Amino acid sequence: MHTTNDCCPPARPLTDMDTALSLLLSHARPVAQSEQVPLLAGLGRVLAEPLKSPIAVPAWDNSAMDGYALRSADLANTGNDAGARLRVTQRIPAGSVGQPLEPGTAARIFTGAPVPPGADCVVMQEDCAADGDWVTVSRTVAPGTNVRRAGEDIESGARIIGAGTRLGPQHLGLAASVGLAELSVYRRLRVAIFSSGDELANPGEPLGPGQIYNSNRYTLAALVAAMGCEVIDLGIVPDTLEATSAALADAATRADLILASGGVSVGEEDHVKPAVERLGSLELWQIGMRPGKPLAFGHIGGTPFIGSPGNPVSLFVTASLFARPFILTQQGVKGPVSPQTLTLRAGFDWPNPDKRREFHRARVETGPDGEAEVQIHPSRSSGVLSSVVWANGLAVIAEGRSLRRGDTLPFIPFTELLG
Fold first, then answer.
1. 4 in a domain, yes or no?
2. In this structure, what CATH number is given to the domain that contains residue 271?
3. For position 182, what pLDDT does the model report?
């Protein structure tokens, strides 16, 4: 495998990942302002107030299937071995309301239709034989069979979605099912982003000598936008302390969070860290992880700042593992904000442990025995952005751990990190 130096040797001990993330999240302050939005605009937003149902669901006893609504006693009292023969007096499709059912009669009923007063069960049509205005029921059933009771799913006044929930399609569907047309959600988070480096050019521009295209701007903007944030794009900042300080000061007045890529290491052209220290405070720098060691966290005035390394894979990993949970907390999300991991089998050997926790670009494949296993990209370089497209998740190798093929390890699917 190829190796790469993540950055210069640290001048002080590295902060372990768990401590770093805990410190980071302890500084995340949820936005306080909320707004009313139409239900269809709620996707990805965070509820500011719990949702309560104004109605019961179902609103009335209804049929769980197509069949016949009747009185269970009419089936139990028959002495006919062929079954009970009942006159069909009405037909009740979904969206209609039937009349009270007389003893000794049945109602043809369809899934979702209200069970008429007097009936206490529904017999599925497969257990019935229709003959004109009559039906013969070949079995007995207990009261309540195939009947969905009023309020069985949701009682009127019940809380159906808690405040702090980030809304997905299923939440919008549930809100719609109880007739709610508007939601109270926290306002969108304003996130300022910029890239540091004189070597950067924007796509569509000709490359000058020694220049590369700025992929980080688009990766970071897309990650932030996918989380429902308002992106304040400050573009490329020149490699000077003055320009970096000016960009940070401007961002602090306009945003709830500042995300920067590049300039956080210890090189002579790395100006982000000293600019943050000049304007505010730096609470965290250099994490015991690979890739992404030169992660920085601090404040410009009251505005939090997260600085990621300039290498594109390092940016992707640190933004996913640190910026994302920080943003979710700022958005007002209650409950766990770190990604859920799977435990899967390694399809590779890893004989040489590292002092840092490693996050390898990886994907799940089918092993020789037909079982799922994790394969990692052959390059460890944090500059190989194509490896992120090749992968569908991150394989996590703990500090000091070696692996043999067949051992288990944590795997973070990209579905837990994107959007």
1. no
2. 3.40.980.10
3. 97
Indicate whether 271 and 179 sit together in one domain.
Answer: no
Q: Do 278 and 299 contact (CB within 8 A), yes or no?
A: no
Is position 51 within any domain? yes
- CA distances, 75 to each of 81, 92, 143 (Å): 11, 21, 11
**Domains in the chain, number:** 4
The whole domain housing 375 covers: 342-416
User: Does 1 map to a domain?
Assistant: no
CATH number of the domain where residue 108 is located: 2.170.190.11
Residues 174-206: pLDDT tens digits? 999 999 999 999 999 999 999 998 899 999 999
> 168 and 47, same structural domain?
yes
How confident is the model over 8-40, as pLDDT tens digits? 444 568 999 999 999 999 999 999 999 999 999
pLDDT tens-digit profile of 312-369?
A: 999 999 999 999 999 999 999 999 999 999 999 999 999 999 999 999 999 999 999 9
Q: What is the pTM of this model?
A: 0.88
Do 165 and 192 lie in a common domain? no
Cβ–Cβ < 8 Å for 204, 192? no
pLDDT tens figures, 268-315: 557 888 899 999 999 988 999 999 999 999 999 999 999 999 999 999
